[in-house]
Every structure is written in C-alpha cells, then in structure tokens.
Amino acid sequence: MVRLNHVSKEYRRDEAAVAALRDVSLRVAEGEFCALMGPSGCGKSTLLNIVAGLDHPTSGELFLEERPTSHLSDREWTGLRRSLIGMVFQSFHLLPTLTAEDNVALPLLLQGENGRSARRRAAESLARVGMEPRARHRPGELSGGEQQRVAIARALVHRPRLLLADEPTGNLDSRSGADVIALLQSLSKELKQTVLLVTHSQEAAYAADRLHTMRDGQLDGAT
Amino acid sequence: MLKALPIIARSHMVERPVRTAMTILGIALGVAVSVAIRTANVEVLRSFEEAVLTVAGRATLQVSGGELGLDERVIARLRNEPGVLSALPVVQQQAQVAALPHRGKPLVVMGLDLLDAADHRTFHLKTEAGTEPTLDPLLEPNAVFIGARLAEEWSLQAGSQIDLLVGTVTHRLVVRGVVESSTGVRTAWEHLAVMDIAAAQSLFGSIGKIDRIDLITDPAHPVEEVADAIKPRLPPPLTVRRPEQRNEQVERMVRAFQLNLATLSGVGLLVGLLLVYNTIAYSVVRHRREIGILRALGLSRLGITTLFVGEAAVMGLIGGVAGSLFGVLLANRLVLSLSRTVFDLYVPVRVAADGLASVTPALLIEGGLFGLVVAMLGACAPSMDASRTAPAQALAPGEYEDTQVFRAGPLAWFGGGCLVLAGLLALPGPVGGLSLFGYASAFCLLLGLSCLAPLLVYGVGTLVTGKDRAERRRVGALGLIAAEQIARAPGRNAVTVSALMVGIAIMIGVGIMIQSFRQTVEAWIDQTVMADLVVATPGWPTGEEGGMHAKRMPLAWAARAAAVPGVAAVDTYRDLTVEIAGRPVSLVSRDLRVHAERSRYLFVNGDSAELLPRTVTARGVVISEVLAGRLGVREGSMLTMMTPAGDRSFPVIGVFYDYATDGGKLVMDRSLYRTLWDDDTTTVIAVYLALGVEAGVVRQRLADAMGQVGQIVVIANREIKREILAIFDRTFAVTYALEFIAVAIALLGIVNTLLTSVLERQREMATLRAIGASAGQIRRLVLWEGLYLGLLGACLGVVGGVSLSFLLIHVINKQSFGWTIQFQFPVWLVVEGVALAVGAALVASYVPALWAARQPIVDGLRYE
Hints:
Structural class of chain B: alpha+beta
Strand content of chain B: 15-25%
Shape of chain B: elongated
Strand order of the largest sheet of chain A: 6-7-8-3-9-10
Shape of chain A: globular
Structural class of chain A: alpha/beta
Oligomer: heterodimer
C-alpha cells in the first residue's frame, strides 16, 4: 500500500540545511496497522506528511499502491486525499463553528456530494465511533476524547483505504487515549484499512501489527 | 513598563506589514482628499483675492459702476473729497484671443493712466531693450504691454500682433513691451495686458466711460470714514468699498458650495477612521494573550489603552504626512476643475499654473495632525475595550468576539436612536445660509446604520448557518463555512461592512441627488428654453468674456434679426449682474409679452401665460425661488433695489424655478428696464422661427444678415441645452472623484479584513486542504467571504444611500442653494451600486484568496 524508497527530506533555514528524514525506506502492506514511534523532532510527522502529500521529499520516491507519486500535481494529490487517504491529527483540527455532523460531512461536501447524502453518511460514520448522540454539538461542547472520535469519523467518512494518524492520543488523557487507539484498531480490522500511526506513546504503539522506531530522521528498526 | 510600549507597538506593526501598510494607505488617501479639497478651495479664493488686491495696488477704496461702468467725470468730483489723495480711473476688459495659436484663450486688458500708474501700482513696463518705454509707444492707440509670464508662455515679443475679440468686434493690438511685477514676486500683473486708458476707451468704443475708480486715501483718515463721506455724493447705483470686501463677498457666495465639497471629502476620513478601528480591533483580538500577560506583569488599563492608541497614532501620523504630500498633488489637479466651476457658477476666477499649492512644513504638520486625530479616534473604542478586559479573560481565547456578539444588541438600539435623531435633525432650517443640521442629520444616519451592522452580520450569519437545512443546502459547504466565519467575528466584519456601506451610501445618495438634479434641470430646460435660435456675441457661449463691453449687442440689431425671412418673432434678453442685499443677482430684462406667447417660466404658483403679461402691466418683477428664499419675499411682496434712478420698489408677481444661477434671478419687462437703466444693448437675441421653415437655412440667413454689422454667433436650441448640461456635469465631476476615493478606501478595508482573516485561519485552511479541499476551493471560500461582506455592505449602502439622497435633495441642497429638485429614483444607479460593492468586494478578496490557496499545508497545520 505504502512504500518509501530512500526518502530524504531537508529544510532550509537561512543558509543551513536541516535534515528531517535521512534515506528512509519503509513498506506498509495493505490492511496492516503500522506504528512509528520516536522522540519529538525525530521526523515521524514529516514522514506522515509526505505520505499524505502535504509535504514532498527532497529525494527518494514514495509509492502509493505501487504507483510513484513524485510527478503528481497538487490537483492529483487533492484527489488522493479525497479518495485514498484519511487523516487524524493530534489537535483534532475540527472547525470550531461547525457541528460534529457538519465537520464529518465536510470531506464529502468538498467533493461535491449533495448535502442530504453527505449528512446521512456522516451520521453513519459518527455512529461507527459512537458519537451519533453528539452529532449536533459543536467542538467546543465536546471533551478531547469525543473531539478525536469526531475527527476519526471525519477521516473515515469517505472510506479511505489508508488512514494516517498523527499523534492521535497526544492531547488526550490516558483513558481517552486508550479508547481512541482501541477504536482505531477495531476499525482497521472491521474496514480492512491500512493504518499508519505516528506516536510517542508506547501503549498506542503496542496496539500496532508492526512497530518502527525512529531517531534523528532515520528508521532504527522494526518489531 | 511604559518604556516598553513603543517596542511592543512597533512589534505589532512589523508583525503584519501588509496590514499596517494598507491601514496607512487608507489614512493617507482620506487625508489626501481632505487636504486636497481644503487646499484647492483656499487656492481658488486666494487666486481671486490675489488678482483683486494686486491690481488694486495701493488703492484703499474702489468706486464701481458694475457691468455698465460709470461716467469718468465722477473722478473730478472724487479728487476733491477730503481724505482722497488720488483717484485713478480703470478700464478692465476681459477679452478673448481671436486668432490662432491661442484662439479662445482669455486675456484681461487693463486700461490705466500709465503716466500715473508707476507711482501707485506694483508693476513697471519694459521695452524689448530692457528700458522704460518713452511716451510715444506708451500712448500709441493700439499699443499693449503683455505680462512677462504670459508673453513667455505665448511667445510674444515687441512688435507681435495680437487680435482680441471684445463683444462683437475684433481689435488688433501691437505688443510694445512687457509688464513686470515691481515687488520681486510673481503677481497677477504678469498674466495681464496693460494699455493706456485713453487708448483703451477709444479702442473699445467707450469714450467717457470707465469700469471703476481706484482711490488712494490719506492714511490720516480712516478708510471707512472716507467711504461714508463719499457714498452719499455718488450717483446711484455706484458703490464704494474696500478691495478686500469684493473678496469677502465672493467668499460668502461660494461658502455653501465649498462646504458641500469639504463635507464630502470628510467621508474619506470617516472611512479611514473605520479602517483604523478595524486594524486596532483586530490587533487587540490577536494580542489578547499578550494583554493578559502585560496586565499580569503590572501594566495599568491606561497603559493598555496607550499601547493600542499609540500604535494607531504612529500609523495615523505616517499616513497623514504621506496623505498631505499626495493631497498637494491632487489639489493642483482639483484646483483647475474647481476654479472652472466657480467661474461657471459665481465669478470669473483664474488660477495661474505657477500659482498652485506647494508642499510646506505647515501643510505636512496639518496633514500629520489630521491623520493622527483620525487614527486615534478610530482606535479609541477597541483600545478601551482591550483595557477593560480582565487579565484572566484576556488569556482565554474567543472571549473578545463573544462579548461583541452580546454587544450587537445594545449597539443596534443606539443605532436606532441615531436614525431617529437623524430624522429630527432634518427638520430645523439653515444656520447662516448653511445646512448645518442637515449635515449633522446625514452623519447620524450613517452612524446609525453603522451601529446596526454588527447585528446584521451576526443575524445573517446565524440565519445561513442556522437550523434551516434547506437554506444550508442552498449555499453549499463553502458558503456555509464562509457565513460562519463572517458571523464568528461580527465586530471585525461589521466595521468592514460599515466602511463599505458608507462608501456605497455616499455613491448612491449623491448619485441619486445628481441624477434627480440633472433630470430636473433637463425638464426645466425643455420647458423653458424654447427659442429656436439664439444670436449672441462670440464670447457668450464660452463665458470667457467679462467687462463693460462683453456680451452685449446694440438693441437695434433685434430688428435686423426680426426682418430675416423665416423668423416669426424675436425677444431681446439682457442679463446684467446687480447687487441686492449685498449679493450679486442676475437682473434679466426681456420682452415679457413675447416670452409669454412663445416660451415660459416654470412658476411655483400660477401660469406663465397669465403671470408674465400681468408683470408687464403692473410694472413688477418675477423672481427665482432661490432669490425669493434668500430675501424672504413671496408673490405679492414688494422688492426694493438700487437702480440708476435711485431706490425703487417693485411688486413681486411670481416666483419661478430656475437652475441657471446660484445667486438668484430677477426678471422685468424690457420697457420697465429701459426707463430705469441707461442701457440700449442686449446680451442675446432669442429667435423664434415660423412654422415649417428649415432651422438650418434661417440660421445661415441670420448669420449672414447679422455678420454684416458685427461678429456674432447663431446657436441652435439643442446646443444651448447641451452647454447647460455640460456646465452641470463639470460642476459634479469633482463629486464623482471624491466618491470614488471613499469607495477605494472601503475596499482597502475589505482586503485588510480578509487578508487578516486568512492569516489567522491558516490552520483551518490547511485542515480543509488535508481533508480533501482543493486549492480552488480554498480560493472560492475566501471569495465567498468577500461576497458576504460585499452583499451586506451593499444592502446597508442602498438603505443609507436612498435615505441620504432624500436628505441631500430636500434638506441640504434646499437649505444651501435654494433649489427645488424633483426626486427621481434611478434603479440602475442602485443596481450599479450593489454590483460595484459585490464586484469590488470580490476583486478585493481575490488577492487574499490567491494567497490563502498557495500556503503550504504543513505550515498551516503547525500554525498556532
């Protein structure tokens, strides 16, 4: 599903180049729940952003479903995010003025799906994460765990085959964090989704089928 | 702690350089317009004053006979008056150059006693050799001395010939030298022509008559005392006054006109003020955590207010100084246009190209202060808001806008109160001829509507994003997010909406007024300018002539015109400026019986065909509504005025609508006029054609027949109408320019608001991109927001504009100028206003939209 081939990423700050990823090669099979763990600044979020097409490698190649991505345009990446990829963020990134239902329906509405159908599917997605009763609430009225559930519902609403989760438990207490990881785990099994999880929580990482550790922009190894 | 404030304020300004620059630009534009109008207004009056006072020289009093001149024998009588040292005769004739390359350009010819002039005037004459002229060339019949600057501009030198058209005759003059200012500075003398008075009288055919007498009085006698002593001995209707009084009179005449422009130019400042409000309000929101920290560190409430007001003050000062520089450039363009309007409507005034305003330290200080005050006023409310926020509250996100939502209600009540007050202020009359309450009413109207804006923004946003699913579906996902974004910050967005509202309201309000006025004038012309052809002197259509010999033809020429085959009737129309109650009034004498049969006046009460013959039999007058309003007379009253035969009273038979002059018009029958005024000339001859004749043919016949006796032009009815409307359009050209600038500043507000909104929502935009929004959708989202702002501004603007047009038509213009304007509602103007607001809002949103769509997604997701 995901293959990184000698991917490196450098950022230029003034005259100096800072390497965020160094020659990373990684393969995540279809339906696999894969976790990346490492300390802050090790490059794991950069790796996830590259897989989502939010950032691009300085060298090396990313393959999604065995197709190279280096030549993809912004429009084609947008298309991939609408169909193939779903994303969950540490800070939830819900739009504060929209209700939970509207937030979840948003990816579908942005694709041009009609409102009725989008909201029906949003309600289904919310039901899947156990948030249907809170559909009419705005983010400010929900707890952190609830907000992350809504964010997961939003990431799943368009049935992506690849779910990318960037520190989904980072802003949650341990109990809520465990709930969210359990939810991701069960959904991955139920929907046969490939999940790439970035975390520095060991509990979260252990839920994965495979765990990679990262340090200074490089993959240390896998368990 | 206070010492840290400049550092913090500077960091705020540098943090968002584009926003800071746009705010400064907004202030600069507002100040520029205000400075430009003020400078141009002052410059026009100063040019007039300079011309009057320079030419007057050492003269402390002037005896004038008005347009008909006076008998030169009065001089001898005046020379013997106690307190009078010298009495200097003057012939002052404004002519037109008759031949190329300067054909049509005006030239003032001063006929003076040149042997005496050097002692009393501030110029000297110079021959080509650079010496003083000898007696012979000085007194030569056709010799003229041209102002040095003018001679240079027109490339004239000794021996050059110059043909001048005066009335119906072209005169050839020979340049014998130049006129130079003897004070060392450039004065009006350098743009005039000077010749010997006897030669001028002979040349212009007015032996024994002069325009005025300049008196030099003994410093030992107070000038007023000498004037009082002379007055009773002068034959009517001669006047004696100080040269400065002429200037004061003009100042009074143009006061309402200039106040109108100055007020309109103030709109730019008002919109600039809203822009500052917006910038500072947003700075307060953005730095609320900083406010909390500073308060926690011990900075007082006053310190917080000072911080934000100081930030605005710096922007105001920079904008004000920049604005005054730009204002001077603008003034130099405006002054020519304004002087043309003052020339068309009031008095001949010319602004020399080298007499324009320049940048002075005083002007820069003035502009800087303007900007400072506007910016500080604009910053007051948000800065005080910031200071009132408790430190804990300041540290909590979202509180500021939330409190503003709750304030939208009370603010709307206040706005409603302002609207009621606006209505009440429209009721009282003018103060000293100025519609001060009317302007206050217009201000309250715009203030009231501005205060309703937050409620409207919040209400519409809530409506669109509310529970009505049908409505939500209709606007789509982007429309929904945009509406919620607008409603989320009603304070910031309402100010932008208000700024746009003010711009659009002024545009629609003034536009409706001008259109209504224009249509009223058009209808008035159609109904009252009925003569098929008009025979006039060549200088009459352009208005470029003035003086005793200009714009007049012998009355006997009317008979020659009447004898032309195809002419059914002629009416002689004599237009003379006289003074009533200290202000110039147009005195028209004509054959009222012919006018009653062939044409009409539009009377406020009664019918023209009945009133005009009655005016003849009653030896009365009919007067324009402007004059009636100013003098407080009505039908049946007696009107007293000074005539050459002494004070006379006339019954006022009717009051008619007239839009030709601002000073007012008085009409009497030609027979009555001739018994009182020693004047057997006519300004124009109105010609009515017989039925079925070809106008073009008769026009040619008239030109041929009249051309044998003098230089005339024959003008067709439609050409006169066109010229009147051209003057009308010229008068309001400046108004359109001012409106345009107000709208431009409002647009800066939209760019400012949207750009900031986009900056602040980078994370939100990035999230949308991450969950599948395309760059195009992000662009459209920002454009949606611009569209909402534009639509809301347009809606309020239409309400404000239509209300304002009522105020302008029925209160401000009526009180300032006395004209009755029929209200017309040009739907296209409203459509144009709405289209402009929405279109401009979309254009203004485009740059922020492009910017938003181009931002890296990863940066946005990291953004806090």
